[in-house]
Write a structure and sequence with these properties.
The complex is a heterodimer of chains A (296) and B (341). Chain A has 296 residues and is an alpha/beta fold. Chain A has a single domain, classed as Rossmann fold (3-Layer(aba) Sandwich). In chain A, the strands form 2 sheets. In chain A, strands 2-3-1-4-5-9-8 form a 7-stranded mixed beta sheet, sandwiched between helices. A two-stranded antiparallel ribbon of chain A has the order 6-7. In chain A, strand 2 and strand 3 form a beta hairpin. In chain A, helix 5 packs parallel to helix 6. The termini of chain A are far apart. Chain B folds into 2 domains: 172 residues, Rossmann fold; 153 residues, Rossmann fold (3-Layer(aba) Sandwich). Chain B has a 7-stranded mixed beta sheet, with helices on both faces. In chain B, helix 1 packs parallel to helix 7. The longest helix of chain B is centred in the C-terminal third of the chain and has 16 residues. Classes of the chains: A alpha/beta (296), B alpha/beta (341). The interface between A and B is medium-sized, with 37 and 33 residues.
Chain lengths: 296, 341
């Protein structure tokens, strides 16, 4: 539990730092934080082996990246546009690759990529699990359904995680997602589970069952995690009422788990995360900027 | 030696690749024997290697990404898209994935996939099954586009594409499939002298007067190559006008060395493509050749292409829309008139 808290805290502090740096004008471009959703990244990816398994993520990928790689210094340098960044500054916040971790920035386009990766890993036969993270907004993309079909037809070892944070940018899911999310996958003959919690312990348990099922059966699995995004879609573009955002605070995964921890443990972990992020930021600031065009 | 049809040579290249490498897969629709794909290029593969021929649902929007995912993980997928027109369904994967991964991920990955797809008309398939959409790929960085013609070693070209570490779009002209793969013998083809570049995707340059000074350089690829050669012969026989024909096999990255060398002897450029005119391959060729060989050109280049419109189904209407021998002859004669004046 302490490690879950530490990982979630690290992700939270990382993204808060990014938002601070944006507001200070120190970063350009865009970013998509998963503040409020950290339990999903940590709970799911505690079941994967970074040397064997593959993760494919989306625009809201920092939590997945940190939970999978632990590499905050590479990620902050990437967002800062430094040569020491994960992709040397070429990708930025949402186009990352490190080892067995891949992200891309177009909604739904990662589903085919993950399907192909799972097919490759099925052929290799080393037992790798491929996990792909989608959002409720992505359910509007047709490619997702093509991939559910192929993953089921071809028995691919693919864990599809839908993080349903109930908003696609500013559009509530009532205006974008009809019917049942879970039934979408059930219609393709894919085993499905749905969870309505931000408790990392519960997410961890459900994801463990899902990952075991994929590894055991070689079949895809569709895990719907109903969650809450406590921060804007990207930065400063939250159109929700402050009362709604205030009400979400009770779902804060750090608060939910933190209530079960010793106060001293929490304080120590939070301090350590602050220090780790501060050191990563400092290293990023000292690293050379990528690209010579602005240095002239 | 009896010349085999181009489709048989392509089929042989696939069988070669499957024998040579265990990481090669064929992915696409209706691939299984006895059908073996809509144009039979993959015939026999699924019988010999059933586990490496994956017949798919009709899901082009995703199939490009599926191939990319396999390629990222160390395989060499060959994606067959049944008609080139259907690449439109895959453009997100092409532009935002396949084209980007290597560079965007800071050269940590390779995407060694081949997309094979037939393009071209003259078969009466109508507006959505007859197009030549190469120009849409021409604007995509970090990919190769190879478009063999019946005078290229099509078996070698496909083999080289499969061995290529970059993504390759391999454009197969539909009419070419059934025609013999005619190769120059002792540097001669149809009575014309021919020189072939070195490298994996060579251009061939043809001359009817042994590379002496000529009236124009006609640049073509794919299904327009035999038409350009016919035009060159007709210009000799009926007008006593000698041209060179450069048959490109690679459109991306677009190398123009053979064209520039030829233009130095001819002083005029005519491009011929089956795709529609505006923003086409000829436009890009013209810009590049004029940048490098302005001093050799006597006048503006001329582009022969399909009309900017649909390719109708009725044979008579289709023939009106697509460029033919006479369009090339006329374009050269216009240049010839400039030279005479």
């Amino acid at each position: 539990m302490l490690d879950f808290y530490r990982q979630m805290c690290l992700i939270r502090r990382f993204e808060e730092t990014l938002l601070e740096m944006f507001s200070e004008g120190l970063l350009v471009g865009t970013t998509h934080t998963c503040i409020g959703q950290e339990a999903n990244a940590v709970g799911v990816l505690s079941h994967v082996d970074a040397d064997l398994d593959v993760v494919v993520s989306n625009h809201r990928c920092h939590g997945h990246y940190i939970a999978f790689t632990g590499d905050v210094s590479g990620l902050i340098a990437e967002v800062m546009g430094r040569v020491t960044g994960t992709c040397g500054g070429r990708g930025g916040s949402q186009h990352l690759c490190r080892g067995n971790f891949y992200t891309n920035g177009v909604q739904g386009s990662i589903a085919p990529l993950a399907t192909g990766i799972a097919l490759a890993e099925r052929e290799r036969g080393a037992g790798a699990l491929t996990t792909v993270f989608l959002g409720d907004g992505t359910l509007g993309q047709g490619a997702v359904y093509e991939c559910l079909n192929m993953a089921s037809l071809w028995s691919l070892p693919l864990l599809i995680v839908v993080e349903n944070n109930r908003y696609a940018q500013t559009t509530p899911s009532e205006l974008a997602v009809s019917g049942s999310v879970a039934a979408r996958a059930e219609a393709f003959g894919i085993e499905t589970a749905e969870l309505d919690t931000t408790d990392v312990v519960q997410v961890h348990a459900a994801a463990g069952a899902a990952a075991s099922s994929v590894r055991r059966s070689g079949r895809p699995y569709f895990l719907v995690l109903n969650t809450h995004r406590m921060a804007p879609h990207s930065k400063g573009d939250d159109t929700r009422h402050p009362d709604e955002l205030e009400a979400l605070r009770e779902h804060d995964p750090l608060r939910v788990l933190g209530a079960r921890l010793e106060r001293s443990d929490r304080a120590r972990i939070e301090r350590e995360c602050r220090e780790e992020i501060a050191a990563a930021r400092e290293a990023g600031e000292e690293a050379p900027a990528a690209g010579a065009a602005l240095a002239r | 030696m009896r010349q085999r049809r181009c489709v048989d040579e392509l089929n042989a290249a696939l069988h070669d690749a499957f024998e040579r490498r265990s990481d090669v897969y064929l992915i696409g629709e209706d691939l299984l024997d006895p059908y073996g794909g809509a144009f039979k290029v993959g015939a026999g593969l699924s019988s010999r290697w059933p586990e490496r021929v994956i017949t798919t649902p009709i899901s082009e929007a995703s199939l490009f990404g599926v191939a990319a995912g396999m390629a990222l993980r160390g395989y060499r997928p060959i994606l067959e898209i049944m008609f080139g027109d259907f690449i439109a369904l895959g453009f997100d994967q092409i532009v935002n994935g396949i084209s980007k991964f290597r560079e965007m991920y800071n050269d940590q990955v390779q995407v060694p996939l081949v997309v094979r797809t037939p393009m071209g008309g003259r078969r009466g398939y109508g507006p959505t099954h007859s197009q030549s959409l190469e120009k849409f790929l021409l604007g995509v960085p970090n990919v190769s586009m190879v478009a063999p013609s019946e005078v290229h070693d099509v078996r070698a070209l496909l083999t080289n594409a499969i061995e290529d570490d970059e993504p390759v779009f391999f454009i197969e002209n539909k009419v070419m499939y059934g025609r013999p793969n005619r190769r120059p013998v002792d540097g001669l083809l149809d009575g014309m002298r021919c020189v072939e570049e070195s490298g994996p995707y060579p251009a061939l340059t043809f001359s009817g007067n042994d590379f002496a000074e000529s009236s124009a350089t006609i640049v073509a690829y794919g299904g327009m190559v035999p038409i350009a050669l016919d035009a060159a012969v007709q210009l000799i026989l009926e007008h006593e006008v000698f041209c060179e024909v450069v048959a490109l096999s690679r459109l991306l990255p677009l190398g123009i060395d053979a064209i520039v060398e030829s233009v130095a002897r001819s002083g005029a450029l005519v491009t011929a493509e089956e795709g529609s005119l505006t923003a086409g391959v000829g436009a890009e060729l013209t810009a590049r050749v004029q940048e490098r060989a302005w001093g050799d050109l006597r006048g503006p280049a001329r582009r022969v292409a399909a009309a900017d419109g649909i390719i109708p189904a009725a044979p008579g209407l289709e023939a009106e829309a697509l460029p033919g021998v006479m369009d090339i002859v006329d374009a050269v004669l216009v240049r010839q008139a400039v030279r005479a004046s």
